[in-house]
Design brief:
It is built from two helices and nine strands, in the order βββββββαβαβ. It is globular and about 40 Å long. The two termini are about 30 Å apart.
């Protein structure tokens, strides 16, 4: 999985992703019956769910992130997930464009304000060429973050900011 951020439009900066092996498939968080994280822990890239709140991704290879309860300070909140179409890897630019378009389309219904005027930004998690080919990875995860990089506390859902 790779991570990118939309900055001033649909351009993203991708980082090299990681495969499903190792931490990519693990979830050491504790969740309640609704699936919400109640105790933080390592969350593999392929175990992240819509509604999860995440610590900052570090390094260029993203295999796992810290999953945290949304009531605690966090770097991002996953607000939408969708699959890219099947077929051959369309190229990194096309993946980022499709991921960005899908995440922008889902942004206003979640936040309650248009992306262009929001105090939030979008962080993308999308498949790499390797995860696409080796694992059939087509999932895009859309994350809301503060534009100024400050931590979020609570959910951005319906905040209209």
């Amino acid at each position: 999985m790779a991570v990118g951020r939309i900055v001033g439009g649909i351009a993203g900066l991708g980082l090299v992703g990681a495969g499903y092996v190792g931490l990519g498939g693990e979830d050491s968080t504790t969740r309640n019956e609704q699936g919400e994280i109640t105790e933080g822990g390592e969350l593999g890239a392929f175990r992240i769910r819509v509604g999860d709140c995440l610590g900052a991704a570090t390094g260029e290879i993203i295999e796992s992130v810290e999953g945290v309860p949304c009531s605690q300070p966090h770097d991002s909140e996953v607000y939408h997930a969708f699959m890219l179409p099947p077929g051959d890897f369309p190229g990194l630019d096309a993946v980022i464009d499709q991921a960005g378009a899908g995440c922008v389309a889902a942004f206003e219904p979640f936040v309650g304000a248009p992306y262009e005027t929001s105090t939030y930004d979008i962080n993308l998690i999308y498949p790499t060429e390797a995860s696409w080919a080796e694992l059939g990875d087509r999932e895009v995860l859309c994350n809301v973050v503060n534009v100024d990089g400050s931590p979020l506390v609570g959910s951005a859902k319906g905040t209209a900011r």
